[in-house]
Fold this sequence. Notes:
Radius of gyration: 13 Å
Shape: globular
Helix content: under 10%
Distance between the termini: 40 Å
Structural class: mainly beta
Number of helices: 0
Oligomer: single chain
Strand order of the largest sheet: 2-10-9-4-5-6
Order of helices and strands: EEEEEEEEEE
Largest sheet: 6 strands, mixed
Strand content: over 45%
Amino acid sequence: QVQLVESGGGLVQSGGSLRLSCASSGLTLAHYAIGWFRQAPGQEPEGVSCLNVRNQDFYIDAVKGRFTISRDSSRNTVYLQMNSLKPEDTGVYYCATVYGYLKQGCRRTDEPYRGQGTQVTVSS
Length: 124
């Protein structure tokens, strides 16, 4: 059974940092494009960053220069390092499989594998 499990969320003050982890069992993440999505209350999920199998990455403008996505194949984990956090970064963050063509952003695959998410709250 495939599982994606996120961790690393929490409450942080504005300007702080968090590192989110997306670990998998049953899925070799190095073989998939993986994206990080966030969903704020009352809003649709948005793909904030993704990484394909060629190590090409994508970031939405709102997080460029602050967030970094990476993969550690030895740990079968994808990370999202989030620095200089802002209150508008608050939301539930989850990882999911995405299409590898990133020029159109992070698009979940038709039947994505995804985790349950981890809450990130940034206080002002």
